[in-house]
């Protein structure tokens, strides 16, 4: 399979498959809390600068589950205070994130396989309001929300405020983090880096600004889906460790998180959570951390040079196509993602439901235009306003494979993929799918 869709559901690569088999044997023999502690240490070694210890690690079964943590921390630090969550880019986040930020169950099962009531409030003590700041205009242009967020904060002086920014949405949108130090210091900032297409430098800049940072291993690093981590900056970590936790304020969330999801230093908090193990989550993170360590060994200049060249070439191919139109502001998105609308041959654009059918139409077929692939995968459709687009995206293993190829052959299959998708639009429409 030729993959250009490192979003939430990547396939195992050969190295990850071999690692999975080895780690399954190990996890049955080793103490579970020791494994979690070791994984936390490896993440710290990857993301801290040498000699620093800027954050604590809290595990979660998915990126959406991470959205519960700022509200839990806000509630135990300021009990009973109404919360206002200021959420940017809601239409390009995971489907469960908005419900999670509202303190509601977003699925019908928890990480332990137990049934929960989707849409139900997890803890009735929480009083949460959500202000949404749409990512794009109807024309697809990216909106700068700095002044809008400031105005919304000023309207609610008595509420506990949680600013939820995104750096790396489904189309690679990156909010301007310069607004953080300009706004009220009483805002608890949490930054969604769940796509995790970012540098160690940015992670530490955010931690230095006292932001909680959400990451996953299943997007850019292409681990199996559903593995989240919250990086808690030390300033908040110290507050949490010192406070007396009312068990009533974490009730309900003991159906979301495990005792082992929290670090040892949070015993005052984690003692209210069940000592339930989730080997699947631990396996997924083992694959992700291994991939991070492997990718971290490649010189940054080499990676960036390849990414800029890939981005330029694919953009050129899309501009030359018959049926594709690049989304506006590609220069404001991450270079590993390229987003584009699909024109209908008779006018207008394919809408979200049509693009979903188009995606399925292409990925389920066999193709014979590549040198050694017969299946393709690309980024699934994303809505914005009244429109929608599809994406091509590179993940870490894609980059490994590109670097192995000669410079002359490196982007041959990417050109073929754009041409294939372009030709498939006519076939899709002629078969009556649109």
Give a structural overview:
The chain is an alpha/beta fold and 434 residues long. The chain is 37% helix and 16% strand. It has 14 helices and twelve strands. The protein has helices at residues 14-29, 32-47, 63-66, 68-77, 97-101, 146-155, 200-208, 234-242, 267-270, 279-296, 300-320, 352-363, 396-404, 412-430; strands spanning 2-4, 55-60, 83-88, 128-133, 160-166, 188-192, 212-216, 228-233, 324-326, 337-342, 376-384, 387-393. α1 crosses α10 (279-296), α2 runs parallel beside α10 and α11 packs parallel to α14 (412-430). The model has no long low-confidence stretch (mean pLDDT 90).
Q: Which structural class matches the secondary elements? A: alpha/beta
Determine the mean pLDDT: 90
Q: What is the class of the largest domain in the CATH system? A: Alpha Beta
Estimate the global geometry from the Cα principal axes.
Answer: globular
- Measured on Cα atoms, how large is the radius of gyration? 22 Å
Please sum up the structure shown.
This protein folds into two domains: 31-295, Type I PLP-dependent aspartate aminotransferase-like (Major domain) (Aspartate Aminotransferase, domain 2, 3-Layer(aba) Sandwich); 300-430, Aspartate Aminotransferase, domain 1 (Alpha-Beta Complex), CATH 3.90.1150.10. Helices cover 37% and strands 16% of the residues.
Keywords:
Aspartate Aminotransferase, domain 2; Aspartate Aminotransferase, domain 1; seven-stranded mixed sheet
Tell me the layout of helices and strands.
Elements: E1 2-4, H1 14-29, H2 32-47, E2 55-60, H3 63-66, H4 68-77, E3 83-88, H5 97-101, E4 128-133, H6 146-155, E5 160-166, E6 188-192, H7 200-208, E7 212-216, E8 228-233, H8 234-242, H9 267-270, H10 279-296, H11 300-320, E9 324-326, E10 337-342, H12 352-363, E11 376-384, E12 387-393, H13 396-404, H14 412-430
Parallel strand pairs: 1-11, 3-4, 3-5, 5-6, 6-7
Antiparallel strand pairs: 2-8, 7-8, 9-10, 10-12, 11-12
């Amino acid at each position: 399979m030729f993959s250009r869709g490192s979003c939430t559901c990547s396939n195992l690569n050969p190295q990850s498959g071999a690692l999975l088999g080895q780690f399954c044997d190990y996890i049955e023999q080793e103490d579970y809390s020791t494994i979690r502690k070791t994984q936390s240490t490896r993440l710290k070694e990857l993301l801290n600068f040498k000699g620093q210890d800027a954050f604590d690690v809290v595990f979660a079964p998915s990126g959406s589950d991470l959205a519960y943590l700022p509200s839990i921390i806000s509630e135990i630090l300021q009990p009973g205070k109404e919360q206002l969550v200021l959420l940017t880019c809601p239409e390009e986040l995971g489907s469960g994130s908005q419900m999670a930020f509202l303190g509601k169950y977003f699925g019908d099962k928890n990480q332990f396989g137990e049934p929960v009531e989707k849409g139900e409030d997890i803890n009735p003590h929480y009083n949460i309001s959500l202000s949404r700041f749409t990512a794009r205009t109807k024309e697809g242009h990216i909106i700068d929300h700095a002044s809008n967020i400031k105005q919304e904060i000023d309207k609610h002086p008595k509420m506990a405020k949680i600013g939820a920014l995104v750096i790396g949405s489904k189309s690679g949108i990156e909010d301007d983090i310069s607004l953080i130090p300009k706004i009220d210091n009483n805002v608890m900032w949490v930054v969604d880096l769940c796509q995790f297409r970012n540098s160690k430098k940015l992670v530490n800049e955010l931690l230095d600004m006292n932001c909680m940072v959400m990451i996953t291993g299943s997007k850019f690093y292409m681990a199996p889906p559903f593995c989240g981590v919250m990086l808690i900056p030390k300033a908040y970590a110290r507050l949490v460790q010192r406070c007396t936790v009312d068990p009533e304020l974490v009730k309900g969330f003991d159906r979301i998180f495990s005792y082992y999801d929290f670090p040892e230093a949070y015993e005052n908090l984690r003692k209210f959570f069940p000592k339930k193990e989730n080997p699947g989550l631990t396996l997924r993170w083992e694959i992700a951390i291994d991939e991070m360590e492997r990718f971290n060994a490649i010189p940054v200049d080499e990676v960036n040079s390849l990414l800029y060249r890939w981005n330029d070439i694919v953009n050129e191919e899309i501009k030359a196509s018959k049926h594709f139109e690049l989304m506006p502001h590609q220069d404001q998105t991450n270079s590993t993602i390229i987003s584009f609308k699909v024109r209908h041959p008779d006018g207008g654009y394919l809408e979200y439901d049509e693009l979903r059918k188009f995606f399925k139409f292409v990925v389920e077929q066999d193709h014979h235009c590549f040198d050694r692939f017969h299946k393709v995968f690309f980024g699934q459709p994303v809505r914005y306003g009244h429109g929608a687009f599809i994406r091509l995206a590179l993940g870490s293993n894609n980059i490994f494979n590109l670097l192995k190829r000669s410079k002359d052959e490196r982007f041959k299959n990417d050109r073929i993929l754009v041409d294939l998708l372009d030709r498939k639009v006519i076939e899709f429409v002629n078969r009556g799918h649109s």
